[in-house]
Amino acid sequence: MRKSIIIGLYIFLYASSFGAMGEENQGLNASVWGYDTGWLILKNTESIDVHLNDEVQDGCWTDLSGVRNVVELQLIRSGYETQRGEDGSIFVPDVVIGAVGYEIPGLGSCAVAVKLEASVPDFSEYTVGDGVLSSLHSKSVITYSAVLTARKANANSMIKGQFESMVQQLLVDMERVKQRMRGALEEQEQGSGTRYWIEQLK
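RE: above sequence
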């Protein structure tokens, strides 16, 4: 089910961007306002690329592998395969684990700003006259952030716990947004396209 939904979304975005959507497919189209369909691409992907962005100084974050492992473990338990940037494909959604911080002078404590960002592939186009410039790029779906302070000896465990909480929230939000989109469709007039997408979002 995941693979069929994400392929369908890619085909829809690509075909719409280049004006190639045939009349025979229009009957399965539907619209929902106020929601980003990037959430569905993220939720229904089979693989997620996990990246680290370490800008923490003074030894305030040394357990990078532990944080990566705890984030990947949550994703794997939810049925996703994980990559570590080796593929480099823009068609693979990303989760970026990032932190910026330093030791507070004279206090033996650390201040660290942490961020977990999830992105998906997206199509866009720009028209001037009869010309159309199309682009495939990465689009941010959600960012979770927090500013943490702790004794330097406790900084690693604090950061790891925060990222674990963030990826758990991401997984909850993916399901929550899908359910809300389905609910919005159920409130519409039940045409064939609406019924199709309600069924896909079960």
